[in-house]
# Entry
Amino acid sequence: MTGALATEILKIRRSHLPWMTAVAFTVVALVGGLFMFILQDQERARSLGLIGTKAALVGGVADWPTYLAFLSQTTAVGGMIVFGLVSIWTFGREFSQNTAKDLLALPTPRVAIVTAKFAVTTTWCLVLTVQLFLLGLVIGSLLGLPGWSATVMFTGGVRIAVVAVMTVLLTTPVTLAACVGRGYLPGVGVMIVAVFCAQIIAALGYGEFFPWSVPALLSGLAGPDHPVPGPVGYVAVALVGVTGAAATVLWWQRADQDR
# Structure
């Protein structure tokens, strides 16, 4: 297991993808800060050319709860894409670069290889989430957003963390698709379908029963009038995560690896 972890960490160090994902989450925090800056004084924003003379942002106020809610919502939607790409790259690259057979030839249990990959991707995604939250704290402080309190910070931080963990769990079927399809494209296809269906089913009012819609609903993306997902939604997310991870392990152990 130690050797498998060291190998995966080395692959990450040699890749540009960690820096690209870090930049993506940095942009998210900056965009949220830009929205807060505009909401603080829209006339000032117009004079600076940030919005058109006839444009106006409605439906929000520039304060800490709104900013943290924005970070949570982007973690739910953008996180599915970024976290999904991280998982697809970690597993799919072995087949796209024809290195899977080299891994399978090593005297290392296949369970250890897959577990190391899941451990590295999970840590990677959670580090990105922590980065997003810390950047949010810095940007919000620089903007002087009102409404700060220990309760608001704790509640907002916990919500972002829970949304991130749920989103990571929902990427395991994407990982399985990348393995079964032996490359990047099958995983990307499953990820796009999941995101698309999540939006449609949530709009129809059945999002709490569809696992990929639950993180967005928990983040408040559907609006304050929409109820928070119940226990069924959380159980469904957990089942998807565990089933996807277990199926990936079984596939690596039992599949016919002919190339």
Summary: The chain has one domain: 2-254. The chain has a mean pLDDT of 85. The chain has eleven helices and no strands.
